[in-house]
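Margin note: ligand = uridine-5'-diphosphate-glucuronic acid.
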Amino acid sequence: MTKICCLGAGYVGGPTCAVIAYKCPDVQVTIVDLNAERIAAWNSDELPIFEPGLDEVVKACRGRNLFFSADVDKGILEADLIFVSVNTPTKKSGVGAGFAADLAYVESATRRIARVATTPKIVIEKSTVPCRTAESMRAILEANSRQNIRFDILSNPEFLAEGTAIADLMNPDRVLIGSLQTPEGFAAQKALADVYAHWVPREKIITMGLWSSELSKLAANALLAQRISSVNALSAICEATGADVDEVAYACGLDSRIGPKFLKASVGFGGSCFQKDILNLVYLSESLHLPEVAEYWKQVVTMNEYQKSRFAELVIRRLFNTITNKHLAVFGFAFKKNTGDTRESPAITLVKHFLQEKAHIHIYDPKVEESQIELDLCNPDVATPEQYKSHVKVYNSPYEAAKDVDAIVVLTEWDEFKTLDYRKVFNSMNKPAFIFDGRLILDTQKLRKIGFQVEVIGRQA
Ligand code: NAD
Ligand code: UGA
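Resulting structure:
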Protein backbone atom coordinates (compact mmCIF):
# COMPACT_ATOMS: atom_id res chain seq x y z
CA MET A 1 0.00 0.00 0.00
CA THR A 2 1.37 3.41 -0.99
CA LYS A 3 1.72 5.69 2.03
CA ILE A 4 1.41 9.44 1.75
CA CYS A 5 2.14 11.98 4.44
CA CYS A 6 1.24 15.65 4.16
CA LEU A 7 3.04 18.23 6.31
CA GLY A 8 0.53 21.03 6.89
CA ALA A 9 -3.17 20.51 7.62
CA GLY A 10 -4.30 23.88 6.28
CA TYR A 11 -6.62 25.07 3.51
CA VAL A 12 -4.56 23.19 0.94
CA GLY A 13 -3.08 20.18 2.74
CA GLY A 14 -6.39 19.25 4.39
CA PRO A 15 -8.77 19.24 1.40
CA THR A 16 -6.16 18.06 -1.15
CA CYS A 17 -5.05 15.02 0.81
CA ALA A 18 -8.58 14.26 1.98
CA VAL A 19 -9.62 14.03 -1.68
CA ILE A 20 -6.61 11.80 -2.46
CA ALA A 21 -7.70 9.46 0.37
CA TYR A 22 -11.30 9.57 -0.86
CA LYS A 23 -10.36 8.71 -4.43
CA CYS A 24 -7.59 6.21 -3.62
CA PRO A 25 -8.78 3.61 -1.11
CA ASP A 26 -5.53 1.70 -1.69
CA VAL A 27 -3.41 4.64 -0.53
CA GLN A 28 -2.93 5.49 3.15
CA VAL A 29 -2.91 9.23 3.76
CA THR A 30 -1.76 10.85 6.99
CA ILE A 31 -2.00 14.61 7.36
CA VAL A 32 0.22 16.00 10.10
CA ASP A 33 0.65 19.47 11.56
CA LEU A 34 2.66 21.16 14.31
CA ASN A 35 -0.58 22.77 15.44
CA ALA A 36 -2.16 20.10 17.66
CA GLU A 37 -5.35 22.14 18.07
CA ARG A 38 -5.88 22.18 14.31
CA ILE A 39 -5.33 18.41 14.17
CA ALA A 40 -7.84 17.90 16.99
CA ALA A 41 -10.39 19.91 14.99
CA TRP A 42 -9.75 17.76 11.89
CA ASN A 43 -10.49 14.73 14.08
CA SER A 44 -13.70 16.26 15.44
CA ASP A 45 -17.17 16.96 14.03
CA GLU A 46 -16.29 20.67 13.59
CA LEU A 47 -13.60 20.74 10.91
CA PRO A 48 -11.20 23.68 11.23
CA ILE A 49 -12.12 25.06 7.80
CA PHE A 50 -15.41 25.50 6.01
CA GLU A 51 -15.47 24.25 2.43
CA PRO A 52 -18.62 23.00 0.66
CA GLY A 53 -18.44 19.19 0.38
CA LEU A 54 -15.39 18.80 2.64
CA ASP A 55 -17.30 17.30 5.58
CA GLU A 56 -18.66 14.49 3.43
CA VAL A 57 -15.25 13.64 1.97
CA VAL A 58 -13.52 13.61 5.36
CA LYS A 59 -16.26 11.61 7.02
CA ALA A 60 -16.22 9.02 4.24
CA CYS A 61 -12.56 8.09 4.76
CA ARG A 62 -11.35 9.37 8.13
CA GLY A 63 -10.18 6.34 10.12
CA ARG A 64 -10.26 4.19 6.95
CA ASN A 65 -7.28 5.42 4.93
CA LEU A 66 -7.23 9.06 6.07
CA PHE A 67 -5.61 10.05 9.36
CA PHE A 68 -4.89 13.39 11.02
CA SER A 69 -2.05 13.41 13.51
CA ALA A 70 0.24 15.74 15.44
CA ASP A 71 2.97 13.08 15.33
CA VAL A 72 4.94 14.60 12.48
CA ASP A 73 7.93 12.25 12.79
CA LYS A 74 5.81 9.10 12.59
CA GLY A 75 4.08 10.46 9.51
CA ILE A 76 7.45 11.11 7.84
CA LEU A 77 8.93 7.75 8.86
CA GLU A 78 6.07 5.72 7.40
CA ALA A 79 5.54 7.59 4.13
CA ASP A 80 6.77 6.92 0.59
CA LEU A 81 5.54 10.27 -0.71
CA ILE A 82 5.59 13.41 1.43
CA PHE A 83 3.70 16.57 0.52
CA VAL A 84 5.07 19.80 1.96
CA SER A 85 1.98 21.98 2.22
CA VAL A 86 3.04 24.50 4.82
CA ASN A 87 2.41 28.24 4.78
CA THR A 88 4.67 30.54 2.74
CA PRO A 89 3.57 34.03 3.83
CA THR A 90 5.15 37.29 2.70
CA LYS A 91 8.27 38.10 4.75
CA LYS A 92 7.59 40.71 7.43
CA SER A 93 11.19 41.67 8.17
CA GLY A 94 14.73 41.28 6.91
CA VAL A 95 15.87 41.04 3.30
CA GLY A 96 12.92 41.20 0.89
CA ALA A 97 10.48 42.23 3.66
CA GLY A 98 7.04 43.00 2.23
CA PHE A 99 7.74 41.11 -1.02
CA ALA A 100 9.69 37.86 -0.73
CA ALA A 101 8.06 34.65 0.44
CA ASP A 102 9.04 33.57 3.93
CA LEU A 103 10.41 30.10 3.34
CA ALA A 104 11.20 29.39 7.00
CA TYR A 105 8.33 26.89 7.30
CA VAL A 106 9.29 25.08 4.10
CA GLU A 107 12.89 24.91 5.25
CA SER A 108 12.10 23.61 8.72
CA ALA A 109 9.73 21.00 7.25
CA THR A 110 12.48 19.95 4.82
CA ARG A 111 15.09 19.73 7.60
CA ARG A 112 12.72 17.60 9.62
CA ILE A 113 12.19 15.19 6.73
CA ALA A 114 15.99 14.91 6.31
CA ARG A 115 16.50 14.32 10.02
CA VAL A 116 13.76 11.75 10.49
CA ALA A 117 13.66 9.72 7.27
CA THR A 118 15.22 6.28 7.27
CA THR A 119 13.98 5.13 3.84
CA PRO A 120 13.90 6.80 0.38
CA LYS A 121 11.25 9.49 -0.01
CA ILE A 122 9.63 11.44 -2.79
CA VAL A 123 9.28 14.96 -1.40
CA ILE A 124 6.62 17.06 -3.10
CA GLU A 125 6.42 20.84 -3.00
CA LYS A 126 2.71 21.57 -2.67
CA SER A 127 3.23 24.99 -1.11
CA THR A 128 3.54 27.89 -3.53
CA VAL A 129 7.23 28.74 -3.63
CA PRO A 130 9.62 30.97 -5.56
CA CYS A 131 11.23 29.53 -8.66
CA ARG A 132 14.18 27.24 -7.83
CA THR A 133 13.11 26.47 -4.25
CA ALA A 134 13.43 22.77 -5.05
CA GLU A 135 17.16 23.34 -5.45
CA SER A 136 17.44 24.63 -1.87
CA MET A 137 15.31 21.76 -0.63
CA ARG A 138 17.57 19.28 -2.37
CA ALA A 139 20.69 20.86 -0.81
CA ILE A 140 19.11 20.71 2.67
CA LEU A 141 17.93 17.12 2.25
CA GLU A 142 21.25 15.89 0.91
CA ALA A 143 23.34 17.68 3.52
CA ASN A 144 21.22 16.48 6.42
CA SER A 145 20.06 13.03 5.48
CA ARG A 146 21.10 10.24 7.82
CA GLN A 147 22.50 7.30 5.88
CA ASN A 148 22.67 8.85 2.42
CA ILE A 149 19.02 8.20 1.89
CA ARG A 150 17.69 8.97 -1.56
CA PHE A 151 15.29 11.91 -1.91
CA ASP A 152 13.54 12.89 -5.12
CA ILE A 153 11.90 16.29 -5.25
CA LEU A 154 8.80 17.12 -7.24
CA SER A 155 6.89 20.32 -7.73
CA ASN A 156 3.13 19.80 -7.67
CA PRO A 157 1.51 23.22 -7.22
CA GLU A 158 -2.11 23.41 -6.17
CA PHE A 159 -4.65 25.39 -8.19
CA LEU A 160 -7.78 24.96 -6.06
CA ALA A 161 -9.75 28.06 -5.12
CA GLU A 162 -11.34 28.34 -1.70
CA GLY A 163 -15.09 27.97 -1.64
CA THR A 164 -14.89 25.52 -4.54
CA ALA A 165 -11.90 23.48 -3.33
CA ILE A 166 -13.59 20.08 -3.37
CA ALA A 167 -15.10 20.55 -6.83
CA ASP A 168 -11.76 21.86 -8.12
CA LEU A 169 -9.90 18.88 -6.67
CA MET A 170 -12.40 16.32 -7.92
CA ASN A 171 -12.35 17.75 -11.42
CA PRO A 172 -9.17 19.78 -11.93
CA ASP A 173 -8.42 21.68 -15.14
CA ARG A 174 -4.97 20.12 -14.89
CA VAL A 175 -2.59 18.51 -12.43
CA LEU A 176 0.94 19.82 -12.83
CA ILE A 177 3.99 17.77 -11.86
CA GLY A 178 7.50 19.12 -12.30
CA SER A 179 10.62 17.04 -11.85
CA LEU A 180 14.27 16.91 -12.70
CA GLN A 181 14.60 15.67 -16.27
CA THR A 182 16.52 12.54 -15.19
CA PRO A 183 15.46 8.86 -15.11
CA GLU A 184 15.02 9.12 -11.32
CA GLY A 185 13.04 12.36 -11.71
CA PHE A 186 10.76 10.73 -14.29
CA ALA A 187 10.23 7.71 -12.02
CA ALA A 188 9.22 9.95 -9.13
CA GLN A 189 6.94 11.93 -11.47
CA LYS A 190 5.27 8.68 -12.52
CA ALA A 191 4.73 7.56 -8.92
CA LEU A 192 2.83 10.77 -8.15
CA ALA A 193 0.98 10.73 -11.49
CA ASP A 194 -0.23 7.20 -10.66
CA VAL A 195 -1.87 8.53 -7.51
CA TYR A 196 -3.75 11.29 -9.37
CA ALA A 197 -4.64 8.91 -12.19
CA HIS A 198 -7.07 7.19 -9.79
CA TRP A 199 -9.52 9.91 -10.80
CA VAL A 200 -7.88 12.48 -13.07
CA PRO A 201 -7.72 11.63 -16.78
CA ARG A 202 -4.10 11.04 -17.82
CA GLU A 203 -4.20 13.81 -20.44
CA LYS A 204 -4.93 16.31 -17.67
CA ILE A 205 -1.84 15.27 -15.71
CA ILE A 206 0.89 17.36 -17.27
CA THR A 207 4.59 17.05 -16.58
CA MET A 208 7.53 19.40 -17.08
CA GLY A 209 10.78 20.55 -15.55
CA LEU A 210 10.90 21.70 -11.92
CA TRP A 211 11.52 25.38 -12.61
CA SER A 212 8.72 25.69 -15.16
CA SER A 213 6.35 24.01 -12.75
CA GLU A 214 7.28 26.28 -9.84
CA LEU A 215 7.01 29.38 -12.01
CA SER A 216 3.71 28.27 -13.59
CA LYS A 217 2.01 28.51 -10.22
CA LEU A 218 3.14 32.09 -9.62
CA ALA A 219 2.32 32.93 -13.23
CA ALA A 220 -1.22 31.50 -13.06
CA ASN A 221 -2.04 33.50 -9.93
CA ALA A 222 -0.49 36.64 -11.39
CA LEU A 223 -2.51 36.28 -14.61
CA LEU A 224 -5.75 35.69 -12.68
CA ALA A 225 -5.21 38.65 -10.38
CA GLN A 226 -4.21 40.78 -13.36
CA ARG A 227 -7.61 40.17 -14.94
CA ILE A 228 -9.35 41.40 -11.82
CA SER A 229 -7.18 44.51 -11.59
CA SER A 230 -7.79 45.14 -15.29
CA VAL A 231 -11.56 44.96 -14.93
CA ASN A 232 -11.37 47.04 -11.75
CA ALA A 233 -9.35 49.69 -13.59
CA LEU A 234 -12.10 49.69 -16.24
CA SER A 235 -14.72 50.04 -13.48
CA ALA A 236 -13.25 53.44 -12.59
CA ILE A 237 -13.58 54.54 -16.22
CA CYS A 238 -17.17 53.26 -16.26
CA GLU A 239 -18.09 55.30 -13.20
CA ALA A 240 -16.67 58.41 -14.82
CA THR A 241 -18.26 57.92 -18.23
CA GLY A 242 -21.62 56.25 -17.72
CA ALA A 243 -20.55 52.89 -19.14
CA ASP A 244 -21.51 49.80 -17.13
CA VAL A 245 -18.63 47.51 -16.14
CA ASP A 246 -20.78 44.36 -16.15
CA GLU A 247 -21.81 45.13 -19.73
CA VAL A 248 -18.24 45.87 -20.78
CA ALA A 249 -17.01 42.63 -19.15
CA TYR A 250 -19.80 40.70 -20.86
CA ALA A 251 -18.99 42.15 -24.27
CA CYS A 252 -15.27 41.46 -23.86
CA GLY A 253 -15.77 38.00 -22.34
CA LEU A 254 -17.71 36.78 -25.36
CA ASP A 255 -14.48 36.97 -27.34
CA SER A 256 -13.29 33.40 -27.10
CA ARG A 257 -9.70 34.62 -26.79
CA ILE A 258 -10.63 36.55 -23.63
CA GLY A 259 -13.31 34.30 -22.12
CA PRO A 260 -15.95 35.27 -19.54
CA LYS A 261 -14.40 34.05 -16.28
CA PHE A 262 -12.66 36.20 -13.70
CA LEU A 263 -13.95 39.47 -15.11
CA LYS A 264 -16.20 40.44 -12.23
CA ALA A 265 -15.38 43.92 -11.00
CA SER A 266 -15.25 44.14 -7.23
CA VAL A 267 -14.10 46.10 -4.24
CA GLY A 268 -10.76 44.36 -4.83
CA PHE A 269 -9.36 40.88 -4.64
CA GLY A 270 -8.45 39.33 -1.30
CA GLY A 271 -7.28 35.95 -0.09
CA SER A 272 -4.00 34.65 1.20
CA CYS A 273 -2.36 34.13 -2.17
CA PHE A 274 -2.89 36.63 -4.99
CA GLN A 275 -1.10 39.53 -3.35
CA LYS A 276 1.53 37.32 -1.74
CA ASP A 277 2.33 35.49 -4.97
CA ILE A 278 2.49 38.64 -7.10
CA LEU A 279 4.79 40.31 -4.60
CA ASN A 280 6.86 37.16 -4.71
CA LEU A 281 7.07 37.48 -8.50
CA VAL A 282 7.98 41.16 -8.14
CA TYR A 283 10.78 40.23 -5.77
CA LEU A 284 11.99 37.48 -8.07
CA SER A 285 12.02 39.91 -11.01
CA GLU A 286 13.96 42.47 -8.99
CA SER A 287 16.50 39.90 -7.87
CA LEU A 288 16.95 38.92 -11.51
CA HIS A 289 17.64 42.60 -12.35
CA LEU A 290 14.42 42.98 -14.32
CA PRO A 291 13.03 46.22 -12.83
CA GLU A 292 10.56 46.85 -15.67
CA VAL A 293 9.08 43.38 -15.22
CA ALA A 294 8.87 43.91 -11.46
CA GLU A 295 7.11 47.24 -11.95
CA TYR A 296 4.63 45.70 -14.39
CA TRP A 297 3.44 43.05 -11.92
CA LYS A 298 3.53 45.43 -8.96
CA GLN A 299 0.91 47.55 -10.68
CA VAL A 300 -1.62 44.71 -10.29
CA VAL A 301 -1.37 45.05 -6.51
CA THR A 302 -1.26 48.85 -6.64
CA MET A 303 -4.50 48.87 -8.66
CA ASN A 304 -6.09 46.55 -6.10
CA GLU A 305 -5.17 48.89 -3.24
CA TYR A 306 -6.51 51.82 -5.28
CA GLN A 307 -9.82 50.02 -5.82
CA LYS A 308 -10.29 49.45 -2.10
CA SER A 309 -9.53 53.07 -1.13
CA ARG A 310 -11.62 54.35 -4.03
CA PHE A 311 -14.61 52.43 -2.68
CA ALA A 312 -14.03 53.66 0.89
CA GLU A 313 -13.86 57.23 -0.40
CA LEU A 314 -17.08 56.76 -2.36
CA VAL A 315 -18.88 55.68 0.83
CA ILE A 316 -17.61 58.72 2.73
CA ARG A 317 -18.36 61.14 -0.12
CA ARG A 318 -21.92 59.94 -0.60
CA LEU A 319 -22.61 60.06 3.14
CA PHE A 320 -22.20 63.85 2.92
CA ASN A 321 -18.43 63.75 3.33
CA THR A 322 -18.46 62.50 6.87
CA ILE A 323 -19.06 59.17 8.53
CA THR A 324 -17.89 60.25 11.98
CA ASN A 325 -20.26 58.72 14.52
CA LYS A 326 -22.42 57.31 11.72
CA HIS A 327 -23.34 53.64 11.80
CA LEU A 328 -22.41 51.42 8.85
CA ALA A 329 -23.43 47.79 8.37
CA VAL A 330 -20.75 45.71 6.69
CA PHE A 331 -22.29 42.72 4.91
CA GLY A 332 -19.62 40.05 4.48
CA PHE A 333 -16.20 39.77 6.05
CA ALA A 334 -14.78 36.70 4.25
CA PHE A 335 -12.57 37.40 1.23
CA LYS A 336 -15.09 35.62 -1.02
CA LYS A 337 -18.31 33.67 -0.64
CA ASN A 338 -18.49 30.07 0.59
CA THR A 339 -15.47 30.32 2.83
CA GLY A 340 -14.86 31.49 6.38
CA ASP A 341 -11.34 32.58 5.42
CA THR A 342 -10.58 36.25 6.02
CA ARG A 343 -6.92 36.39 5.04
CA GLU A 344 -6.27 39.67 3.17
CA SER A 345 -10.03 40.19 2.95
CA PRO A 346 -10.93 43.58 1.42
CA ALA A 347 -13.33 43.95 4.37
CA ILE A 348 -10.37 44.42 6.72
CA THR A 349 -9.03 47.36 4.68
CA LEU A 350 -12.48 48.91 4.28
CA VAL A 351 -13.26 48.66 8.00
CA LYS A 352 -9.86 50.18 8.72
CA HIS A 353 -10.75 53.20 6.54
CA PHE A 354 -14.15 53.52 8.25
CA LEU A 355 -12.66 53.29 11.75
CA GLN A 356 -10.12 55.98 10.90
CA GLU A 357 -13.13 58.21 10.19
CA LYS A 358 -14.60 57.19 13.58
CA ALA A 359 -17.65 55.43 12.20
CA HIS A 360 -19.45 52.68 14.12
CA ILE A 361 -19.33 49.38 12.27
CA HIS A 362 -21.90 46.58 12.46
CA ILE A 363 -20.52 43.41 10.88
CA TYR A 364 -22.45 40.42 9.64
CA ASP A 365 -20.94 37.39 7.87
CA PRO A 366 -22.64 34.00 7.66
CA LYS A 367 -19.43 32.01 8.19
CA VAL A 368 -16.80 34.12 9.90
CA GLU A 369 -16.61 33.73 13.69
CA GLU A 370 -16.60 36.85 15.87
CA SER A 371 -13.25 35.80 17.39
CA GLN A 372 -11.70 35.83 13.90
CA ILE A 373 -13.07 39.31 13.15
CA GLU A 374 -11.64 40.56 16.44
CA LEU A 375 -8.27 38.98 15.63
CA ASP A 376 -8.21 40.60 12.19
CA LEU A 377 -9.22 44.05 13.39
CA CYS A 378 -7.34 44.25 16.71
CA ASN A 379 -4.11 44.41 14.84
CA PRO A 380 -1.59 47.25 15.10
CA ASP A 381 -2.17 47.94 11.39
CA VAL A 382 -5.94 48.31 11.75
CA ALA A 383 -7.37 49.25 15.14
CA THR A 384 -6.61 49.26 18.83
CA PRO A 385 -8.57 46.92 21.13
CA GLU A 386 -10.26 50.03 22.60
CA GLN A 387 -11.34 51.23 19.14
CA TYR A 388 -12.64 47.75 18.40
CA LYS A 389 -14.62 47.57 21.63
CA SER A 390 -16.19 50.99 21.25
CA HIS A 391 -16.77 51.05 17.48
CA VAL A 392 -17.26 47.49 16.18
CA LYS A 393 -20.10 45.09 16.85
CA VAL A 394 -20.58 41.67 15.26
CA TYR A 395 -24.11 40.42 14.58
CA ASN A 396 -25.63 37.02 13.88
CA SER A 397 -28.26 38.35 11.51
CA PRO A 398 -28.10 40.84 8.65
CA TYR A 399 -31.38 42.38 9.81
CA GLU A 400 -29.98 43.06 13.29
CA ALA A 401 -26.75 44.42 11.79
CA ALA A 402 -28.65 46.85 9.55
CA LYS A 403 -30.92 48.24 12.27
CA ASP A 404 -30.46 52.00 12.81
CA VAL A 405 -27.53 52.26 10.41
CA ASP A 406 -27.00 55.00 7.83
CA ALA A 407 -25.58 52.69 5.18
CA ILE A 408 -25.01 49.08 4.23
CA VAL A 409 -21.74 48.20 2.53
CA VAL A 410 -21.70 44.83 0.75
CA LEU A 411 -18.15 43.46 0.72
CA THR A 412 -18.58 39.70 0.11
CA GLU A 413 -20.77 38.20 -2.61
CA TRP A 414 -22.68 35.78 -0.34
CA ASP A 415 -25.78 34.54 -2.17
CA GLU A 416 -28.02 35.28 0.82
CA PHE A 417 -27.43 39.02 0.38
CA LYS A 418 -29.32 38.85 -2.91
CA THR A 419 -32.52 37.59 -1.35
CA LEU A 420 -32.85 39.54 1.90
CA ASP A 421 -36.13 41.32 2.61
CA TYR A 422 -34.75 44.74 1.72
CA ARG A 423 -38.03 46.50 2.46
CA LYS A 424 -37.73 45.30 6.06
CA VAL A 425 -34.07 46.33 6.09
CA PHE A 426 -34.95 49.78 4.68
CA ASN A 427 -37.64 50.37 7.28
CA SER A 428 -35.20 49.75 10.12
CA MET A 429 -32.47 52.09 8.81
CA ASN A 430 -31.75 55.81 9.30
CA LYS A 431 -32.80 57.95 6.35
CA PRO A 432 -31.65 58.60 3.74
CA ALA A 433 -30.74 54.90 3.64
CA PHE A 434 -27.67 54.14 1.55
CA ILE A 435 -26.50 50.83 0.16
CA PHE A 436 -23.09 50.37 -1.45
CA ASP A 437 -22.68 47.23 -3.53
CA GLY A 438 -18.97 46.39 -3.71
CA ARG A 439 -19.72 43.10 -5.49
CA LEU A 440 -22.35 43.98 -8.10
CA ILE A 441 -24.78 41.37 -6.81
CA LEU A 442 -27.85 43.40 -5.85
CA ASP A 443 -30.93 44.30 -7.87
CA THR A 444 -30.38 48.03 -7.87
CA GLN A 445 -33.65 48.92 -9.57
CA LYS A 446 -35.65 47.09 -6.93
CA LEU A 447 -33.64 48.74 -4.17
CA ARG A 448 -34.17 52.20 -5.63
CA LYS A 449 -37.90 51.55 -5.83
CA ILE A 450 -37.89 50.73 -2.12
CA GLY A 451 -36.23 54.09 -1.48
CA PHE A 452 -32.56 53.25 -1.08
CA GLN A 453 -29.79 55.49 -2.36
CA VAL A 454 -27.77 52.88 -4.26
CA GLU A 455 -24.12 53.03 -5.27
CA VAL A 456 -22.45 50.29 -7.28
CA ILE A 457 -18.88 49.72 -8.41
CA GLY A 458 -18.42 50.38 -12.11
CA ARG A 459 -21.73 52.11 -12.74
CA GLN A 460 -22.94 55.68 -12.32
CA ALA A 461 -25.56 56.33 -9.63
P1 NAD B 1 -2.37 27.33 6.09
O1 NAD B 1 -1.71 28.38 6.91
O2 NAD B 1 -3.84 27.17 6.14
O3 NAD B 1 -1.75 25.90 6.49
C1 NAD B 1 -0.40 25.64 6.65
C2 NAD B 1 -0.23 24.68 7.83
O4 NAD B 1 1.13 24.23 7.87
C3 NAD B 1 -0.49 25.31 9.20
O5 NAD B 1 -1.53 24.59 9.85
C4 NAD B 1 0.84 25.18 9.95
O6 NAD B 1 0.69 24.90 11.34
C5 NAD B 1 1.47 24.00 9.23
N1 NAD B 1 2.92 23.91 9.36
C6 NAD B 1 3.85 24.89 9.27
N2 NAD B 1 5.10 24.37 9.38
C7 NAD B 1 4.95 23.03 9.54
C8 NAD B 1 5.86 21.95 9.71
N3 NAD B 1 7.18 22.15 9.70
N4 NAD B 1 5.37 20.71 9.86
C9 NAD B 1 4.04 20.48 9.86
N5 NAD B 1 3.12 21.48 9.69
C10 NAD B 1 3.58 22.72 9.55
O7 NAD B 1 -1.89 27.57 4.61
P2 NAD B 1 -2.64 27.13 3.24
O8 NAD B 1 -3.66 28.13 2.89
O9 NAD B 1 -3.01 25.70 3.34
O10 NAD B 1 -1.44 27.30 2.21
C11 NAD B 1 -0.36 26.40 2.17
C12 NAD B 1 0.44 26.64 0.91
O11 NAD B 1 -0.37 26.37 -0.23
C13 NAD B 1 0.93 28.08 0.74
O12 NAD B 1 2.19 28.04 0.13
C14 NAD B 1 -0.08 28.68 -0.21
O13 NAD B 1 0.48 29.71 -0.98
C15 NAD B 1 -0.42 27.50 -1.10
N6 NAD B 1 -1.75 27.55 -1.72
C16 NAD B 1 -2.84 27.97 -1.00
C17 NAD B 1 -4.11 27.95 -1.58
C18 NAD B 1 -5.34 28.40 -0.82
O14 NAD B 1 -6.39 28.49 -1.42
N7 NAD B 1 -5.27 28.68 0.48
C19 NAD B 1 -4.27 27.47 -2.89
C20 NAD B 1 -3.15 27.03 -3.59
C21 NAD B 1 -1.88 27.08 -2.98
C1 UGA C 1 -6.91 31.74 -6.09
C2 UGA C 1 -6.88 31.05 -7.46
O1 UGA C 1 -8.15 31.21 -8.09
C3 UGA C 1 -6.55 29.57 -7.31
O2 UGA C 1 -6.43 28.97 -8.59
C4 UGA C 1 -5.24 29.42 -6.56
O3 UGA C 1 -4.93 28.07 -6.34
C5 UGA C 1 -5.34 30.12 -5.23
O4 UGA C 1 -5.68 31.51 -5.45
C6 UGA C 1 -4.08 30.13 -4.45
O5 UGA C 1 -3.01 29.96 -4.98
O6 UGA C 1 -4.23 30.38 -3.25
P1 UGA C 1 -8.67 31.93 -4.11
O7 UGA C 1 -7.81 33.07 -3.69
O8 UGA C 1 -9.01 30.88 -3.13
O9 UGA C 1 -7.97 31.17 -5.35
O10 UGA C 1 -10.06 32.48 -4.69
P2 UGA C 1 -10.45 33.23 -6.05
O11 UGA C 1 -11.73 32.68 -6.52
O12 UGA C 1 -9.33 33.27 -7.00
O13 UGA C 1 -10.73 34.71 -5.54
C7 UGA C 1 -9.69 35.57 -5.11
C8 UGA C 1 -10.24 36.97 -4.89
O14 UGA C 1 -10.56 37.58 -6.14
C9 UGA C 1 -11.51 37.00 -4.06
O15 UGA C 1 -11.49 38.10 -3.18
C10 UGA C 1 -12.61 37.17 -5.11
O16 UGA C 1 -13.77 37.75 -4.61
C11 UGA C 1 -11.90 38.07 -6.10
N1 UGA C 1 -12.46 38.00 -7.48
C12 UGA C 1 -12.44 36.83 -8.15
C13 UGA C 1 -12.96 39.15 -8.07
O17 UGA C 1 -12.97 40.23 -7.46
N2 UGA C 1 -13.44 39.07 -9.35
C14 UGA C 1 -13.43 37.92 -10.06
O18 UGA C 1 -13.88 37.92 -11.23
C15 UGA C 1 -12.92 36.76 -9.44
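The pocket of nicotinamide-adenine-dinucleotide (ligand 1) is lined by residues 7-13, 32-35, 38, 72, 85-88, 105, 108-109, 112, 127-128, 158, 160, 162, 272-273 (CB under 6 Å).
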